[in-house]
């Protein structure tokens, strides 16, 4: 388990703002941090989504291959119960689908080296999880006042990933 | 020594109730008790108590020390007092002794730690003078949390509804969305409690009756569909109510 992820987990739990850890997260390695965060069994999905929404530098330059590597590297529990669990094991594909607006379902289905258990868990749970996003709340004010990132980054990332072969959802 | 009438177990019947249940007092310093027995002619709580006011005794039941201390130790005296309260009944004294024995046994037995202490948590908060929710670091609450309104009206927020509710029934359950410390969104999404549409529509009234600040929040009411095993399979938003006052 990553010491930084554990530390952030504990600090967020106490109410710390994730932006305090921005430099540490970015110097950790963007892809590596996302993988370690989503593999940490107790990292709350809301917190993972907040990190994505507050620190665009974490994902804005990731390539489609980087995302595929992330998807392959997450160990998703077979016993996951949608809407009851609070872990963030599916936040990679959810973020891509809900915020970047690319078809992360066809993306993971086309990854040849995705393990059978990972694929099984994604197949079983994703159909339930795509409406389970903060996006259903009205976050306009939070985007406008700078609490969350500039939404332009979502579109830029989408264009980049589409140019590399991703499909729109 | 004070008023003898105020001493516990000064009456023979109370001592009898203990003895008949197999309990006994033991002075913790064995040498001292032997000396007291020799000097005073036998074990009698009154006599033992009169020898020295700060000597320590243990009340033993079924081989377990269920309480120990001097007459000045509050915890020890509390146990004696609880036993004294039921001393009218031999059976009740036995039941009380058994409760204390179990508690003492559990207290001294090594504990097995929770291997997943991080699996969900309660977010501690307070409400500042402006009515905003602040975390324990003093920051305004932001983002989405699970919440329950417990049967005593207390609002608990954090992650994992059944943990927040101690697995008990609740008055309301769902999510709260905070912006700058204010509740701006409420819903009824809880996989453990699955509040119905009818139950969720009452949330506005419930929050207001309990004086939890929800002015200018939106209440999103969902229909929660579940499978035969009880697990949620779909959530459909059926209504969004703006709470103005």
Walk me through what this model shows:
The complex is a heterodimer of chains A (169) and B (245). Chain A has helices at residues 3-13, 22-28, 30-39, 45-54, 64-73, 91-100, 104-109, 116-129, 140-144, 152-163. With 169 residues, chain A is mainly α. Chain A is globular. The mean pLDDT of chain A is 91. Chain B has two domains: 4-108, no CATH class; 121-242, no CATH class. Chain B is built from eight helices and twelve strands. Mean pLDDT of chain B is 84; it is low at 1-8. Classes of the chains: A mainly alpha (169), B alpha+beta (245).
Question: In brief, what are we looking at here?
Answer:
The complex is a heterodimer of chains A (169) and B (245). Chain A is an all-alpha fold and 169 residues long. Chain A has helices at 3-13, 22-28, 30-39, 45-54, 64-73, 91-100, 104-109, 116-129, 140-144, 152-163.
Q: Let me know the average pLDDT of chain B.
A: 84
Structural category of chain B: alpha+beta
Taken together, the total number of domains of chain B comes to 2
Unreliable stretches covering 5 or more consecutive residues of chain B = 1-8
Any chance you could write out the topology, listing elements then pairs?
The complex is a heterodimer of chains A (169) and B (245).
Chain A: H1 3-13, H2 22-28, H3 30-39, H4 45-54, H5 64-73, H6 91-100, H7 104-109, H8 116-129, H9 140-144, H10 152-163
Helix pairs in contact in A: 3-5
Chain B: H1 12-20, E1 24-27, H2 30-40, H3 45-51, E2 57-61, E3 64-69, H4 74-85, H5 90-108, E4 121-122, E5 125-127, E6 133-135, E7 143-150, E8 155-159, H6 161-164, E9 170-179, E10 182-187, H7 197-201, H8 203-209, E11 218-226, E12 232-242
Parallel strand pairs in B: 10-11
Antiparallel strand pairs in B: 1-2, 2-3, 4-8, 5-6, 7-8, 7-9, 9-10, 11-12
Helix pairs in contact in B: 4-5
């Amino acid at each position: 388990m990553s010491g930084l992820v554990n530390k952030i987990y504990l600090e967020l739990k106490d109410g710390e703002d994730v932006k305090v850890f921005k430099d540490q997260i970015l110097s950790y390695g963007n892809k590596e941090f996302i993988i370690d965060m989503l593999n940490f069994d107790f990292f709350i999905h809301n917190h993972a989504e907040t990190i994505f929404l507050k620190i665009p530098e974490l994902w804005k330059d990731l390539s489609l291959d980087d995302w595929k590597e992330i998807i392959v590297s997450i160990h998703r529990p077979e016993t996951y119960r949608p809407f009851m669990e609070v872990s963030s094991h599916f936040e990679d594909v959810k973020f891509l689908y809900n915020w970047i607006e690319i078809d992360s379902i066809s993306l993971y289905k086309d990854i040849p080296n995705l393990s059978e258990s990972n694929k099984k868990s994604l197949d079983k749970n994703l159909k339930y999880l795509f409406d389970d996003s903060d996006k259903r709340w009205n976050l306009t004010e939070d985007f406008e006042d700078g609490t969350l990132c500039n939404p332009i980054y979502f579109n830029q990332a989408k264009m980049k990933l589409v140019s590399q072969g991703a499909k729109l959802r | 020594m004070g008023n003898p009438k105020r001493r516990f177990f000064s009456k023979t019947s109370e001592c009898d109730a203990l003895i008949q249940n197999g309990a006994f007092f033991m002075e913790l310093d064995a040498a001292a008790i032997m000396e007291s027995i020799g000097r005073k002619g036998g074990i009698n709580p009154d006599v033992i108590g009169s020898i020295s006011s700060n000597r320590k005794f243990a009340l033993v039941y079924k081989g377990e020390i269920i309480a120990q201390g001097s007459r000045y130790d509050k915890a020890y005296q509390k146990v004696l007092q609880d036993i004294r309260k039921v001393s009218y009944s031999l059976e009740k004294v036995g039941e009380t002794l058994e409760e204390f024995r179990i508690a003492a046994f559990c207290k001294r037995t090594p504990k097995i730690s929770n291997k997943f202490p991080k699996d969900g948590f309660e977010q501690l908060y307070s409400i500042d003078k402006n009515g905003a929710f602040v975390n324990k670091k003093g920051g305004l609450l932001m983002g989405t949390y699970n919440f329950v309104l417990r049967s005593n009206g207390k609002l608990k927020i954090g992650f994992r509804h059944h943990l927040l509710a101690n697995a008990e029934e609740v008055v309301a359950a769902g999510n709260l969305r905070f912006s700058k410390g204010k509740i701006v969104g409420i819903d009824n999404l809880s996989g453990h409690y699955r509040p119905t549409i009818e139950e969720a529509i009452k949330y506005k009234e419930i929050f207001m009756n309990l004086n939890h600040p929800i002015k200018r929040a939106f209440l999103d009411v969902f229909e929660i569909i579940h499978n035969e095993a009880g697990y949620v399979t779909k959530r459909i938003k059926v209504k969004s109510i703006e709470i103005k006052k």
